[in-house]
Structures are given as C-alpha cells and as structure tokens.
C-alpha cells in the first residue's frame, strides 16, 4: 500500500482527534509512523492502524475505514484538483475510477495496486458497482463514494447486498445519488 494512504490517515486523525490520538494509534499498532507518500508499506500496517483506531475510538473497523474514505476526499480534491474539476456529479466521478483515476494514480505512485470496479450504469437512478480487491477494503470504497457525493453537494442511498467479508466473490453496491 502506498504511503499517501497513511499520510491521509495521519492528517485526518490528527485533525479530528488530536496529536495524542495519532501517537496512541502508532503505539497500539507498534508502527513507527514514518510514511513517505511514494513509499510502499505492507497492507497489514493499515490493518493494524485501523484496528487500533477501532479500539481507541470505540467504533467498528469498517466504520473507521468508511470515516477515513469519506473525510479523505476533501484532502484529495485539494491535492489533486484535476481528478475532480472535470466532473459535474459524483456518479460521473465514480464512473471514471477504472478508466481515468486509477491509471493516473499508478502514474503518480508507481507500483500502486488499485481495486477493480465494474459498473452497471444502465439505470439513470441506480448505479450498481462491483468491487474486487485482495485487500477487501469495501468500507473504504463506501466512504470514498460518500465523500465524492459530499464534494458534489449530493446525498446517496447506499446498499451493499453482496460482500467479500460475507463470503461473496466480490462486493456489489447499489448507489442512488440524490
């Protein structure tokens, strides 16, 4: 996993919960916290930080990931405006994940492994999104989608009828942008 993910998490934890909470997370996760944005780190490092945050903040790990994704979008929009300015809606933005955003991420962060999404956009009201990743960070993807909706001043209705955490081959989400 690329260091930018850890940098974003650190910035959000410090901003929302304070310097001491970030230090406590590092201690609990037995992590040194020295992450460079282009560096590569084991996926388990994020798992340990999320588990520590879950314990310290008394919320389930999937809610930590969802919070992280949602709150990371404003930071990403300020750091990488070209990814956002060409879009008029969250749906339009989300539909470019495989074709525009992830290829650009791999250019900026060589070696980055991104999830694979598939979409059924045949309905103008509901976007069906499939998600596959060995990391199984569907809660993070959920948060990113909520953050994108916030960015475009939209709401969403989000259903997650299939999930790899429940034994399904892939995650499937039904998203209605409001």
TrEMBL record:
Residues 117-177 form the 4-vinyl reductase 4VR domain. It comes from the Bacteria. It holds the Pfam family HNOB. InterPro entries: H-NOX_domain_sf, Heme_NO-bd, NO_sig/Golgi_transp_ligand-bd, V4R. One of its GO terms (molecular function) is heme binding. Coiled coil: none annotated. Transmembrane segments: none annotated. This is Heme NO-binding protein.
């Amino acid at each position: 996993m690329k260091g930018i993910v850890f940098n974003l998490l650190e910035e959000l934890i410090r901003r929302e919960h304070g310097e001491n909470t970030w230090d406590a997370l590092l201690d609990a996760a037995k992590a040194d916290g020295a992450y460079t944005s282009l560096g590569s780190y084991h996926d388990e490092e994020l798992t340990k930080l999320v588990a520590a945050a879950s314990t310290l903040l008394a919320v389930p790990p999937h809610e930590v990931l969802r919070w992280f994704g949602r709150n990371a979008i404003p930071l990403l929009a300020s750091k990488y405006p070209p990814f956002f300015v060409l879009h008029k809606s969250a749906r339009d933005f989300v539909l470019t994940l495989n074709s525009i955003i992830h290829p650009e991420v791999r250019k900026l962060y060589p070696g980055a492994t991104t999830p694979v999404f598939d979409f059924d956009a045949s309905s103008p009201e509901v976007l069906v999104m499939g998600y596959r990743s060995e990391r199984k960070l569907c809660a993070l993807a959920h948060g990113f989608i909520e953050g994108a909706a916030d960015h475009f001043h939209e709401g969403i209705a989000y259903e997650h009828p299939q999930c790899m955490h429940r034994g399904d081959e892939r995650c499937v989400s039904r998203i209605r942008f409001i």
